[in-house]
Amino acid sequence: METRKEQKERRRWQILRAALDLFVRRGYAETTIGQIAEAASMSTGLMFHYFSSKEDLYLALVAIGVEGTKAPQASGACDAVGYFEGFLGQLFSFTESEPWVPQMFVLMGRARRDGAPEAVRELALSVDQMQRSAEVIAEGQRAGLFRAGDPLQLSQTFWASVQGVMEQWAADPAMTPPNADWLMGILRP
Questions:
Q1: Contact status, residue 84 vs residue 75, Cβ threshold 8 Å
Q2: What is the pLDDT of residues 84-105, one digit of tens each?
Q3: Which of 11, 84, 106, 140 could be disulfide-bonded to 146 (CB atoms 3.0-4.6 Å)?
Q4: Residues 6 or more apart whose Cβ sits within 8 Å of residue 11
Q5: φ, ψ of residue 53 in degrees (nearest 5)
Q6: Are 42 and 31 within 8 A, CB to CB?
Q7: How far apart are CA 101 and CA 97, in angstroms?
Q8: What are the backbone angles phi and psi of residue 175, rounded to the nearest 5°?
C-alpha cells in the first residue's frame, strides 16, 4: 500500500514529466497550466497544490537538470578518461530505462538561451560543466591520455556532441545509444 508521502511524490513526478514533455514539444510560452494538468490527468486546482505556477514547474525541472550536471563528478572515476567514460556509460544506461532524460537535455539547452523566465535562465546558466571538464581534459593531456589542443575547446566540442546525441534521442526515442568510444574519440589522441 502506497503511503501518503509516496503518493504525493508520485503525483509530483507525474506533473513534472507531463510539463517536461509539453515544454519540449510545444515550448514554455506555448504550454498552459491547463494543458499540463490535463496531461498529468488531474485538475488544475490539484496541480496548484504541488506547484504554484508554470514558472515554478519550469524552475523545478531546471533544478533537476542542474543536479544532473553533477553526474560526471559523481561517477566515482579517479582518472580523466574514467571521468568521461563513466559519465557516458551512466548517461546512456539511464536513458535507456528513463526516456525523459533526453528531453531534459533539450529543456536545459532551451532554458539557457530561449525566452525562459529570468530565474530559470539564471539557474540553468549557474552550471559551468565546460570549465570543469576543461580542467579534467588538461589533466588528461598532461598524462598523455587526451589529444593536444585547447582544453576548453575540446570540452565544448565534447559536450556539444553529447547535447546533439541527446536531442536526437529526444526526437527519436527508439534510437539506440551510440558507442561511447565515438564520443571519446573527440578527446583521445
A1: no
A2: 998 999 899 989 888 899 999 9
A3: 140
A4: 40, 42, 50
A5: -165, 170
A6: no
A7: 9
A8: -60, 145
